[in-house]
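Board notes (copied after class):
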Amino acid sequence: MFPVPKATPSRPNSHLQSGDASPPGPPSHALAARANSASGDEPPSVGSAFAGAARGSGKSTESRSNRDILVRAHYEIFEKGNLDFVDEVFAESYVVHGVTGDRVGREQVKETAASIKESFPDLRVELKSVVAEGDLVAWQRDSHGTHTKQHAGVAPSGQFVSWQTFVISRFENGRIVEESGATNVASALMAAHHRGSQS
């Protein structure tokens, strides 16, 4: 859900993997082909950053339930800093699909979430879109914060940075088991670092 790679000049657009691990690529055909656009009723409000953000297909209880779990996961992990919630919502066999391979295990989610919170102490996150269809939830998160510690291989700039994350999550029995997506965090951090060096 949250991993990001280290930035390199030749790859300004990063993907969703932490540290030196293989970054996930664009959503796999198997996931993307099934993440069809749909709309429905609003979920209960779970926090100011998420109110009105999530929309589900309205076609099944499963879709609505998965959507609500995804929204709550963002609230618990980022708004409250409750990393123990990772164990409740991610399966032990959780896998992120990468362009050079897969990375398995939910501990990576805890590590990356902790790193982001530490690197951006004033972090704010907003779920801009959440679309549920069957066992899939496609979502967009906008993140904002002041870069005070090295993250994604980029030295802290002291600049306020905003970036976007796009992910497709697959659920089984109420837990996230599989994800693929992309984020522009590395390019956003490098751009902010460049601005800081020019000021």
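Comment from the instructor: The chain has five helices and seven strands. The chain has a mean pLDDT of 76.
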